[in-house]
Amino acid sequence: MRLLYSARSWAEVIYRPELSEPRPGVEVVCTLTRRQPPGWTGYARRADQALIAEVAWPPAQPPLASVCGPANFVEAVATALVAVGCPPQRVRTERFGATGD
Description:
Blueprint: E1 2-7, H1 16-20, E2 27-32, H2 49-55, E3 65-70, H3 71-83, E4 91-96
Parallel strand pairs: 1-2, 3-4
Helix pairs in contact: 2-3
């Protein structure tokens, strides 16, 4: 399993201790879009098509992807997954209302 977690800042990442703990068969990739803590070595950009292409499972495997978040985010990530070769029928989505800025 691979989790791509996108948040504005490290403080907004829920379950930080659990996500930071190594687990066999689980890879967590985090991107912080607005503020990164000192020494941050993870991604520092939005979950766009280029980032999805870099971290998603290869289409040949074929992946099952789940996307959850605000509607615009879900649409952008689901579209990017399909653009990099993930079969549309293997992309599950769950949307919730805008969180505001």
